[in-house]
Each structure stands twice: as structure tokens, then as C-alpha cells.
Amino acid sequence: VEEYGRFADLIAADIAAGRLRSGQQLPPQRTFARRHHIAASTAARVYGELVRRGLAVGEVGRGTFVRPARTVDQVDLEFNFPVLPEQAALLAPALERALRHDVFEQSLRGGPTSAATREAAADLLARAGWRPDPGSLLFAAGGRQAIAAALAALVPPGGRLGVESLTYPVLKAIAAQLRIELVPLPMDADGLVPRRARVDALYVQPTLHNPLGITMSTARREEIAGLGLPIIEDGVNSFLDESLAPLAALASDRVVVIDSLSKRLAPGLTVGFVAAPGGWADRIAATLRSGTWGSAAFALDAATRWILDGSAARIAAAKRLDAAHRQELVRQRLPAQGNPRAYHCWLPLPSPWQADTFVAAAARRGISVTPAAAFAVVPAQAPNAVRLALGSPPLDALAGALDTLASLLAHEPDLVEG
Ligand SMILES: Cc1ncc(COP(=O)(O)O)c(C=O)c1O
């Protein structure tokens, strides 16, 4: 390697290691030559080589600068918590009132949940003629904690929980921690297939299933409720489609409904809900306490205010419109499956694409998506597909990312790499 090439390599290493930062000016060529005891013509070739490699830019009369790193805009199609730009402005006024000294003082004390909070939460969760009993509602830190408490109360360690063969990934982690065995059950186009299984309970998502987006028909709901098993019904996505009553309306003594504000409102100040049959509420209250999964009083106070001042309903309504809009962007570009009301969709991959190579190819273009294996109870049996979460990026960034994914799919993996 010629002398100038070795110097160029050294500077390239300094750039790669961050010792020279993007935009930083390199010393004038004459200074560089003197410092390294090389000819001025060699220094000129070193700088020329850096420009040729795309590592530096030379500006006549101004010198040579480390080229600003080419950043790919990151588009997150993995994180599934929609946030509307206007929601902070909608939610702030209620908190301003909550921070009045006398009021804040009260919520800092904690204490028992008020009747007003119970009624407000029951109103929030009510849909299609069903309304939970405010007196037996329980409150958790979030949806995940609500699921953990319900599982711990209904399935003993070593017990078996029947789940849709593709399910919410955190459920897998919670079950593993509680030493509960997951039993994957078959699904069809209408969701979980109603079959008797040797399990202690079922965990199901009848509305806008994560990740497939399936909403079970009324007939299927009746069949699942009719199995006679204890059911944990995850309704975290149900605010996007309130047209069908939960399974709890069909088997009120056997179904625990889980819900949360993380998607309806915002994950940063959230509450989880457990609507349990009277006979189970005490057991779940006990696991909420022993698991330390309960809610903070201030979060409950904020939630109550957001429900009562109408901002929770307005944000949920705006999110329903936003989700439909985002699904339309998908429909115009990709052969994705799912439900036009959901904030996520399911993209089966044409061969020879494999989920892993597709995830990697998307990541190289700054787009994160989730492979089916993350949702599969048995990852080795995962279908060849990815989930796209649509709620995080601004609309134009989403459209651009969907275009990029569509162009990936239009080519063979080997041809798009590199
Ligand atoms: C199906 C499902 N259930 C529950 C949750 C968890 O809710 P939270 O974020 O309130 O813990 C999520 C969050 O992604 C989810 O997708």
C-alpha cells in the first residue's frame, strides 16, 4: 500500500472510532504534511483519497471536513403505542387542575380508590351493552400488570394456559416467569378455534388480535364462551372497535377482562384495568398486591379526570380515524392482512423472502418491523410473515417506509442486499 493510502486508512479509523467527529475540520494539508514528515504532494493525495472514499468533503478556500454521517431516518414499525400530536394539549388541562395544591396533596396520599374513579372506569370500558361492575373493578399499573395478576390468580405454577398460536409476546414472558405452560391452540380466519383443551384457563384477544388483527364474530364468541373454561380476555385494542360486546357479556362468571390506557391514551402515564367476576375479584386483588402490580394513585386520578372531562373519548375517537387513515396507506401499497380498524397489520412474505432476511433488509433501510416468530408460541412453527405497527411515525414517514417495504417485496432478497 502506498504511503498516502496508509495515512488515509489511519484517518478513516479515527473517523470510524469517533475520534474525528462529523463536520470537524481537518488540519490544512501543509500542516498535516509537516506533522507527519511527508511531502505536501502526498498530503494532497491523502485528502484526495478521503474525499474519494466519501469520508471527507473539500471546500475550495475553506479546507477539508469530515463528511457528516449519512443518517438514515429511522422509522419505527415495531413499537405499537399510537400517539397523536395533539394529545398532550388535550390531556394537559385536566392535569393542571390535578396539580392544585389541595387536590394534589390528596392524590399524593394514595388511599382507597374512590367511587368516582370506579364509575368513570366502568363507563370507559363499557361497550355494546356490556358494562363492568364498578364495585369489583381492579386497577393495575398497566395492561401487562393486569395480565400478570389475572394469570397468577387463575393458573397455578406448573399449570397450563391455552392461547392463540400467535399471541402477544409479553404474555409469553409473563407466563414463563410465573412457570405457566403455554398451550398453543389453532386459529382460523375467525380467530381461536373453539376446541376443548386440557388447560386451566384461556388467554384470548377476541377484538383486533395482536398480531393478526382478527376480530371474532359473535358466533365464534359464543362458542369460545361456551367452552366453560376460565378466560382472560385481553381487550387492550378494543377501544378501536367497540361494536361487539366482550366474552364477559356471554359468560359473566368466568371471564376476566383486561384493558389499559397505554394505547387508548399514552403509555407514559397509564393505568391497567381488571374487570373480574365477583367470585374472582378478591383473588386477583391479592395477586395484584403480592405481585406489586397495582396502580399509582396519581395515575388513577389523572385517568379519572381524562375520562370525566371527555378528553379520553376524544383521543380514542381521533385514534380510530387515524388508524383507518394509516391502514389506507398500507392498502394502497402492500398485500397486508388484518383489519382496517387496527393500528397494526400482518404482512405474509412471498418466497424466497424469509422473515429474518426481510427484517434485516428493512433494518438496513432504517425501518424496524417484527418477525412472526416473536408472536409464535412455538417460534419454529411461525408463519413466514412480519407485523407492521403503524401508530408511531408521522404519516409521510409511514408512507415512505411502506413504499420502501413494497419495493423490497418486488425484488428477490439477493438482489436488494448490499
Ligand atoms: C395485546 C396487548 N395486551 C396488552 C398490552 C399491554 O398493555 P400495557 O402497555 O398497558 O401494559 C399490549 C401492549 O402492547 C398489547 O398489545
Report on the structure:
This protein has 418 residues and is α/β, with parallel strands linked by helices. It is built from 16 helices and 16 strands. The protein has helices at residues 3-16, 29-36, 40-52, 87-98, 101-109, 115-125, 143-154, 169-177, 218-225, 261-264, 278-290, 297-308, 311-331, 355-364, 395-409, 413-416, and strands spanning 56-59, 63-66, 75-76, 137-140, 160-164, 181-185, 187-188, 191-192, 201-204, 231-234, 255-260, 272-275, 344-348, 367-368, 370-371, 385-389. A seven-stranded mixed beta sheet has the order 4-12-11-10-9-5-6, sandwiched between helices. Strands 13-16-15 form a three-stranded antiparallel beta sheet, with helices on one face. The two termini are 26 Å apart. The relative contact order is 0.13. The structure holds pyridoxal-5'-phosphate. Residues 80, 142-144, 168, 205, 210, 234, 236, 260, 262, 267, 270, 272 line the site of pyridoxal-5'-phosphate.
